[in-house]
Amino acid sequence: MKFKIQRHEKIIELVREHHYMSVDALAQALDVTPQTIRRDINLLCENNVLHRYHGGATMGGILESELQQGRRSSQQDEKHTIAQMIAAQIPDNASLFVSIGTTMEAVAAALVKQRKNLRIITNNIYVATVAAARSDYTVIITSGVVRPVDGGITGVATVDFINQFKVDYAILSAHGIEHDGSLFDYDYKEVSVMQAMMANARVRYLGVDHTKFRSNALVRLGNIAEFDKVFTDREPDADMRKILTEAGVKWLVPAAVETAETET
Prior knowledge:
Layout lengths: L1 H17 L2 E2 H8 L3 H13 L3 E4 L2 E4 L1 H13 L2 H14 L5 E4 L3 H13 L4 E4 L2 H7 L6 E4 L3 E3 L4 E3 L1 H7 L4 E6 L3 E2 L4 E4 L2 H12 L1 E7 L11 E5 L5 E3 L6 H10 L2 E3 L4 H7 L1
Helix pairs in contact: 2-3, 5-6, 6-7, 8-9
């Protein structure tokens, strides 16, 4: 019973941290069988602690509002800074994809204040709501299944929708960046959507705060070298700077904003 309680606590901790965890990811993280995790999730769902969602779990009603508030307040200053840098690099009259995440919500808020006549295609309900405040913006929400924990839209229909467009910029984030530059996330459906955005954009921007470097996740998104520019709140370490430099990827931190603007 003691080990079961400890396992439940770890499951809740992981789901709270990553907002969504699949059964397979939890089984791997806790070194137990998927069947054990399913039984644990069933019990936690009965107590309204977790909520079943597409082969995994998100936070249930007891903690969901706390989770949402925590996500928006976490690294808030850093996300605001990153958003300001990204918005400064987007010209008026551009078309762009904007993906899921609270950093992307901050980007939308920054764009609304700085840029005119944008065409935004997003699978993020909150981004669409913020951008729709501008009468000169065209805002398109993708089709697909709405993820209850964060208003993200994912699924095969979302990928098919994205593949109909070719835009100027794709603005994305990621949950984890490993030492070799590999990018990871936890929801394979979300990853598929972001990969489609990358494939259908002329320029790719990645916005990540410093906590994402050396963080782990389960599903491979791609590599940091596939982006044109990386925006973060702290200078990457020497190894990461080498990866970016060798790939010809510009990396921008707050002190570099003025220089970057003069280059565009």
